[in-house]
Amino acid sequence: MANANISSIELEVKQGEPARVQPEEETEKGPYFLSNLDQNIAVPVRTVYSFKSASRGNEDAAQVIKNALSKILVPYYPMAGTLTISSEGKLMVDNTGEGAVFVEAEANCNIEDIGDLTKPDPDALGKLVYNIPSARNILEMPLMTVQVTKFKCGGFTLGLCMNHCMKDGLCAMEFVNVWSEIARGLDLKIPPFLDRTIIKARNPPKIEFQHNEFAEIEDVSNTKKLYEEEKMLYRSFLFDPKKLELLKKKATENGVLKKCSTFEVLSAFVWRARTAALRMQPDQQTKLLFAVDGRSKFVPPIPKGYFGNAIVLTNSVCKAGELLKNPLSFSVALIRGAIELVTDSYMRSAIDYFEVTRARPSLTATLLITTWTRLSFHTTDFGWGEPLCSGPVTLPEKEVILFLSHGQERKSINVLLGLPASAMEIFEALVMQI
């Protein structure tokens, strides 16, 4: 797909009246428990998929997607509820059966004109996802909005906004793929496992680890000023197999490590490059946060089809000076240590830590890496074939960097990030040096 920036053509989208899509059958009503792993990531996640088929126009796209949504909201009925606060001050779902918000829209151009969806562009891509204009906070937002936008050429986009507190990436992907299978007339293979109490806090809570992910770091480098004074730029950098191989070679050349994974080496490189780009002081503590999938690490393992967040944030903290003066193998080892930290007892300790403190992970002097490389966006087929491309509308916070797999073989990785203009220039130069 052309790499033209979406804004090279002024995208105009005319949205129809929003309607509610309710579950096709009567579903369970009442309160629905959200675990402590769901509480900390109650942010809307907006994604766009683009479709175009040589053999099928877009006339019935909205109807097909809408009918299938009404069907999938039966087994996944909490998605048709509303977010509320429980008596103990936590987020929970009230299963009202109100349903998801659905909007049909029309664009003024061809789908090819919108360019590369793998680069976040909040202004333009935002027009392809419906936002409730009056919502002041997440409690006033539906758990799910759906917008089907038809283009002049017969293609269409599916714009989704779903609250992260309802599901992590793997679960969201499962949900969208099942929804697309239902649209093609297939049956539900694995019913969702809805009971989130299997990972509820212990009584009494038992905090056995330090949990630096919540630690507040002092911004001695005053990077806050940089973000306030300069324009934010969003870029995506492609790391192809050759580039990834070069990084691995660099990380193992001093013999400290025999080998390392793509995630370890790419995270290490990005953490160092961003630290350098933001010109952090040598004595600035910097924190790396990333999510580890806990499904197989819990004892017993999380059941197949688990509906909810089963990811746990792990962390590594290091002074900026140490990070930059040491070889790449040093940062890779820090990341490996953070991955190894995640065991059943660590995850349960994190769940209990939240129970006691209600702390939110602090993002000062922090980099939060989200990896979508294991998510099968490319298999979503509502009956118009696989998406031409798909991607996020924007990054949820300025500290977040996203890894997306790229290309037919999914062997390349696109790194998406936003930085103040001067920092982006330095980051770009460091990528070029590989």
Provide structural commentary.
Helices cover 26% and strands 24% of the residues. The chain has 11 helices and 16 strands. Helix 3 (122-125) links the parallel strand 7 (100-107) and strand 8. Helix 6 (241-252) packs across helix 7, helix 7 packs across helix 9 and helix 7 (262-277) packs across helix 11. Belongs to the plant acyltransferase family. This is Omega-hydroxypalmitate O-feruloyl transferase-like.
Short summary of the structure?
Keywords: Acyltransferase, Transferase. Belongs to the plant acyltransferase family. The protein is built from 11 helices and 16 strands.
**What is the H/E string?**
EEEHEHEEEHEEHHEHHEEHHHEEEEH
Can you summarize the main beta sheet? 7 strands, mixed
Bin the strand percentage: 15-25%
Range of helix content: 25-40%
Determine the N-to-C terminus distance: 26 Å
Outline type: globular
Cα-atom radius of gyration: 22 Å
Family: Belongs to the plant acyltransferase family.
GO molecular function, one term: acyltransferase activity, transferring groups other than amino-acyl groups
Protein name: Omega-hydroxypalmitate O-feruloyl transferase-like
Keywords: Acyltransferase, Transferase
